[in-house]
Predict the 3D structure of the following.
Amino acid sequence: MIRVVLVDDHPDFRWITGHLLNRHPEVAVVGEAATGLEALEVVAQVQPDVVLMDGQMPLLDRSATTQRLRVAYPEVQIVLMSGGDDAAAGRPGAQARAARYLVKTTQLELLVDALRAARDQGAPRLGRAARSST
């Protein structure tokens, strides 16, 4: 199971994306946040495998949020999303060491593939084996 926290300031996008991801047998959305600051709190509470984060956020931008998450939770992988489809939009995430970069129009199976790849490149975590064997 891939445990995911969704971070996007648009509640409709979070709802739709969460609904689609939760229908996939390999994914569980375990938390949501509308801002970078909320993301830090939610990740601390639920300890996900992957944070799926929007490119535009209020209060704390994606680069600063990504950097703080990498320091505080190095085992949590980060996948960045953007509404745009140009490669240049992914550079701030790459500089902050995100695991993957996707556009929001990515098909569900490709999104799940990216989440799986991100999770699999993460550091081993206590309890991961127990969670995946159930």
Q: What stands out?
A: The chain is about 45% helix and 20% strand. The longest helix spans residues 108-121. Residues 85-90, 123-134 have pLDDT under 50 and may be disordered. The two ends are 9 Å apart (CA to CA).
